[in-house]
Amino acid sequence: MLAISLLVLLHEGGHFFFAKLFGVRVEKFYIFFDWKFSLFKFKPKNSDTEYGIGWLPLGGYCKIAGMIDESFDTEQMKQPVKEYEFRAKPAWQRLLIMIGGVLVNFLLALFIYGQILFWWGDTYIPVKDMTLGMKFNQEAKSYGFQDGDILIGTDAKRFKDFSADLYRDLSEARRVDILRDGKPMSISLPGNLNLLNMIKAEPAFVRPLMPARIDSVMTGSPAEKAGMKGGDQIVALNGAPIDSYNEFVDQLGRREDLLLTAKTPADSLKARTVTIVFQHGAASDARQDTATVTLTPDLKLGFFAPSLAAIYKPVTREYGFLESIPAGISYGWHVLASYVDDMKYVFSAEGAKSLGGFGAIGSLFPPVWDWYMFWKMTAFLSIILAFMNILPIPALDGGHVLFLLYEMVTRRKPSEEFMIRAEYVGFGLLILLMVVANLNDILRWLGYM
Description:
Number of helices: 16
Number of strands: 15
Strand content: 15-25%
Strand order of the largest sheet: 11-10-12-13
């Protein structure tokens, strides 16, 4: 809520700034919508603007005099044009007023990214240093990858860290350079893999290979009751050899399929009951134990695996203040370009299912306060807000920009009746999109997606 409030405040502040700059009256400036009533409002003495906070957290707005917007104030548009109104100003001034919010959001994101690099630097684990290699799914293995391969780079560039960028680079690559058993090799790829399918596949196309080692055990968990301790290694699950933590998770995923088809409590208990072989210590001659345990209802054994940062040493590149400015611009531009490129997946069936609303936005943030993640996610949301608002859809800033550009090119202004109807259509599309996105959140929460 804090991130969204900040972004809405500054976005609407961009519109407000240019409106005031050109002498256009702003009648209302609201964070969130005040349909029927507001939580707070005030109007300074000798001011034309009412400031307030609405109760409906779906954005915010500036009600600019003489403009057809989401307020649908058609009565005002029937009155004679006044010099302080939006419609009385030249097209180039109206254009700047409309792009003011997007401009502020984009510049804000670049500024935040620069400050993140200045204060925290860029900390990551180089993919080439992941000496245990990767774990690949069957699709990846069909192209020639093998578990344990160390990824080096593609025909375009070297890999940096394990992130969405690595998947994106793989999806566009025609050649991938790897190390296998210490020997350099290359694998050919088609160059047009579906990025969304690579990430959403179960298991995913590629993951860092993690040892099936127990870091610590939760008190009262099935793992503790089975006698497991930190440092133990899982060797087998229901007779299937376990060579990595990845394989352990995959095997539990198969138990989830059984649990979903369970019809009686006995079926459920059977799906949750597993036999685990584990050894104390990592040595090959260490003592092994076998235990039959009942997993928790969400199929958890109740232990923590080592994190990547515990296995590999992260590296940090630090930036001076002046260095951080161009680095932040470059990073923000890369985030925007990647986001725009990924938009093509929205128009697929899987992409539509990936849409998310407020629940998805909330899941981006960590469960405990973390300034680094707060600012990083705020900058990312600012980039999204800027891009989504500039789309040429009526009711969005981009729709107004489209009509203004049409006016500037043809010297003809669209009729007010057309603008009002376009605003209704655009607003309806936005409401539909919001319903679909938040319905996806609910279905994911209920386990249907």
